[in-house]
Amino acid sequence: MDNLNEVRVNKLRSDNGTEFRNHKLEEFYDEKGISQNFSSPYTLVQNGMAKRRNKTMIKAARTMLNIAKLPNQFWGEDVNTACYTQTKSIIVKIHMKTSYGMFRKRSPNIYFHVFGCPVYIHNHINHLGKFDEKVDDGFFLGYSPVAIVFRVFNIRRQEMEGSVHVTFSEDDEAISQSSSESYAINFNENKSFPDDEFLETRSKSTHCPINIEYFPYIPAYEHHTPTDSPILQNFISPEEAPKFTNVADVKPT
Fold it and tell me: Where would you find the membrane-spanning parts of this chain (predicted)?
């Protein structure tokens, strides 16, 4: 606060949670000359502003997560995105400004996207051939607090990553179609793949088993073999092709 806005904090009010009331924070506040004020235990009305603000944010985050049909493992990214959007969009009536506008002394740049919407991520990690696929399927998770990138989940790599080279599919038809798909993948937030594991062409064996409970709307990648193509099936082998000895053998049609 002092470095960004030249505003000195004199007093902080909070409940009695150990994240607010501990020896490390007491030493820090004493060093900075900040006094602490705590509410009575189990008395929410004494800390009503913070409780009301947190409840509004949690309700928005829960709605976003349910509409996107994502598992609860993404609650952290979900809450961060809800906080980010509300800070830049909710107007404080007393000042007729957003929290961001009051703190930064300027209007925010609005570039919001639909949480959980399908995205196409440019693959700049692997060494790809000229005719290999250049994008990976994924879905949008939010905004990075430390870089100008979007937080996305890469379905092929099964991990979260930050990238600015993202194409969003936010139209109603794409979102409704993706929400009705029965294909799905499993999410393992502790699992990461080595960089060279997906250099080969993707096939059905590279995908996780279906789990409709977790991802009911994300289609798995389907790899069609040449025998599935009706065009290739109409081709005949060189042995079966008619052989002509001269031009006279060719009968006009």
Answer: none
